[in-house]
Amino acid sequence: MSGSRTMGTAIERRRTVRYQLRAPVTFKSVEDQIAKPGAGFVQDISTEGVFVLYPRLLSVGGLIELEILLSPLGRYDAELVVSYIGLVVRVEDERGFAVNAKASLHRYIMGRRTPIPDEKSQ
């Protein structure tokens, strides 16, 4: 098949590669649909989305903001955080939810948030 992967009868429609990742994530509703902010763990991630392990149900179509803490990569004075704002596109009962969004990467150094420039802006 031209460009699409299949598993049984399911067709893979993702445009970007998903990477397995176990990292803590916090999230909150942009539209106040979630009464309190939540926390869970990332199962997989790409530049256009993330699947979060979270045992409570969320509403499909809700706008949500997520922050994923990445482990330090050789620097102990900074934390790397991937931020997403996007729509909940899939909910799997008692397992978690998928968010479709573009990622942005930030570095927190001593409490200050510093965007990490992408290759195009350098």
The Cα radius of gyration reads: 16 Å
Structural class by SSE content: mainly beta
| Strand portion | over 45%
Give the N-terminus to C-terminus distance in angstroms. 38 Å
Low-pLDDT stretches are: 1-11
> How much helix is in the residues?
under 10%
Short description:
The protein is mostly beta strands.
Notable traits:
single chain, 122 residues, mainly beta, 55% strand, disordered N terminus
Structure description:
This protein is mostly beta strands and 122 residues long. The protein has strands at 6-7, 10-11, 19-20, 24-29, 38-46, 49-53, 63-70, 78-92, 96-109, 112-115. A 6-stranded antiparallel barrel has the order 4-5-6-9-8-7. It has a two-stranded antiparallel ribbon with strand order 1-2. It is globular and about 40 Å long. The model is unreliable at 1-11 (pLDDT under 50).
Give the SSE map.
Elements: E1 6-7, E2 10-11, E3 19-20, E4 24-29, E5 38-46, E6 49-53, E7 63-70, E8 78-92, E9 96-109, E10 112-115
Antiparallel strand pairs: 1-2, 3-5, 4-5, 4-7, 5-6, 6-9, 7-8, 8-9, 9-10
